[in-house]
Write a structure and sequence with these properties.
By secondary structure, the protein is α/β, with parallel strands linked by helices. The chain contains 19 helices and 21 strands.
């Protein structure tokens, strides 16, 4: 449609030039005959006009231009030529040709079994980063032609169009898609879902919402999944404040040992940054075993050797940990007593979700907000140090900052780090580019809204792998190994069958953490198993079935 308009405009421009040339030619013929008494042919007159308009010269007629009307006509032709060459062509004709022949953003796609992502944002980029390694095709649909052009030039699948239009989704081949993600706004997303379902009633649909109270309307629009990203990050931060994974692993291990369990955040300038776990030999030389790793918005249990260590990656490690300073790694505070008090700063949608999660976990919570409202214990500005004097911050085990403005959050992080250096500072970032600054300001654990949302979307849409998002209840449990005696970990394949992972084994008073697939379980071993609560329940049921099968004759 747009290309047709450009062609029409170019045709009109050419027609206007043609009218001017023919008009001047006929006028020149008449003027020469009327005022100079000289008859010239149409072709002769046309040549004289073109020579004048293009400023190429005037041929041999100059000796006949004696009358004022003819000389005036010649002046007008010369001025028209100057305007045409130096003004009209650069301003109108050249841009028309340039835009007609420049790369146009695609409007259709032939992809099949793909994920259609309506809208484009940082969280959708997180989703794409999970889809690509698994060779799951994806396609962005966005109304901004410049954005779509930039994406396609970078080798990213995208088409231009209004995602809520049926014809646009049809051009995106939604009829052959495996799923569609509506991530535009709370009002537009239901329209996108309805249009997609009209084309393909079986397509899996996910809607990302900002306000929890709109969820029913997205369900009415037949969304299969609704991601409440602000509540999700609130729950994630609340679970983190209730207990780190290092603390949960410590609770599961009953042995007294010289081995330590803690989380190490890799700092800027560390030699580990950019290395894979296989390449990071310093870990082995210092007696470390990596049990898990926080990678952006997800936790990976027993990460593979090709896992790349990025700046601010948090490693859950077990070992003799007196050498971590040499690696430029900061230990995250670990609470080893039962007394925990958490201060939550900010009581919007995210802050409420944090507080509800903490109280469900039995944690003592003090809520601070700048405005008085139900559920707020202290009214004050967290950018004012005097506010924290009212909440006994020195005795807090953790402080959670959940403010809409990252600039305010950054300043509050500096204040908390100064007044409560032993408390774990857990922070929400609205923008992914704020994460680095917040860590530099002293935060111990930062989750960005885009990272959490993107990983949740990936966990919903990807069946090929388990993605452990931070809003999931995650536990370490002790399991008696008797039903598995004399069998190797690879033979049991517990992760595939239940979603749980054996991260350590207690044997003869020792904690064994360097476990390979050929590790053989003995009768008196105790397995330390990590997994979400649902997975842990699957493990229990599987163990029971294993026990019954051994008793059967």
């Amino acid at each position: 449609m747009e290309l047709t308009n450009w062609r029409r405009r170019i045709a009109i421009s050419i027609a206007v030039v043609g009218v001017v040339v023919v008009g001047y030619t006929l006028l020149y013929q008449w003027a020469m005959a009327t005022y100079e008494g000289v008859e010239v042919t149409f072709v002769h007159a046309l040549r004289i006009v073109i020579e004048a308009l293009t400023t190429a010269g005037f041929g041999g007629d100059t000796h006949n231009w004696e009358s004022t009307p003819v000389q005036t006509l010649v002046i007008l032709k010369n001025l028209s030529g100057v305007l045409l060459v130096f003004l009209a062509l650069p301003l109108f004709v050249v841009p028309l040709f340039r835009q007609m022949f420049q790369t146009r953003p695609p409007t259709t796609s032939s992809l099949t079994d793909h994920v259609v992502i309506c809208g484009y944002s940082t969280q959708d980029e997180i989703l794409r980063s999970e889809l690509e390694p698994l060779d799951i095709p994806y396609l962005y649909v966005d109304p901004d032609p410049d954005l779509v052009t930039d994406l396609t030039e970078d080798g990213i699948n995208a088409v231009v169009g209004e995602p809520e239009r049926i014809d646009v989704l049809e051009s995106a081949n939604v009829t052959e898609a495996r799923a569609i993600v509506a991530d535009i706004d709370d009002e537009t997303n239901p329209t996108v879902i309805l249009a997609a379902k009209q084309l393909n009633s079986d397509v899996r649909s996910v809607s990302v919402i900002r306000k929890p109270d709109v969820e029913p309307y997205h369900r009415y629009a037949k969304a299969d999944e609704v991601v409440m990203n602000r509540r999700a990050i609130g729950r994630s931060l609340g679970l983190r404040a209730a207990g780190s994974y290092a603390e949960k692993l410590l609770e599961a291990v009953s042995l007294e040992s010289d081995l330590q369990i803690l989380e190490l955040r890799i700092q800027k300038g560390s030699d580990l940054v950019g290395q894979s776990l296989r390449e990071a030999r310093i870990l082995g030389r210092n007696g470390f075993t990596v049990i898990g790793a926080w990678l952006g918005g997800k936790f990976v249990v027993t990460p593979g050797p090709d896992t790349i260590i990025e700046e601010h990656t948090i490693l859950l490690v077990v070992g003799t940990l007196d050498q971590y300073e040499n690696m430029r790694a900061r230990p995250i505070p670990t609470r080893d007593d039962d007394c925990s008090k958490v201060i939550v700063c900010g009581y919007g949608t995210v802050g409420r979700a944090i507080t509800e999660t903490l109280r469900d976990e039995g944690v003592d919570v003090t809520v601070v907000d700048i405005a008085p409202k139900d559920g707020v214990d202290v009214v004050g500005d967290i950018a004012d140090p005097e506010t924290f004097e009212q909440v006994d911050i020195e005795n807090a085990s953790a402080v959670v900052l959940s403010i809409d403005e990252d600039v305010t959050t950054l300043y509050a992080t500096l204040i908390v780090n100064h007044h409560a250096p032993d408390a774990e500072i857990i922070v929400r970032a609205d923008g992914a580019d704020s994460v680095q600054k917040l860590y530099n300001a002293g935060a111990d654990f930062v989750l960005s809204l885009p990272a959490v949302t993107g990983e949740i979307l990936a966990s919903i849409l990807i069946d090929e792998i388990d993605i452990l998002t931070p809003d999931v209840d995650f536990e370490f449990e002790r399991i008696e190994a008797q039903p598995f005696a004399k069998r190797s970990l690879s033979e049991l394949d517990i992760r595939r069958k239940t979603g749980c992972t054996v991260v350590a084994v207690e044997r003869d008073g020792e904690l064994l953490t360097d476990l390979g697939g050929d590790f053989v379980i003995e009768t008196d071993d105790v397995l330390i198993v990590a997994g979400a609560r649902d997975s842990q329940q699957q493990l229990v049921e599987w163990i029971e079935s294993e026990g019954r099968s051994q008793l059967e004759p």
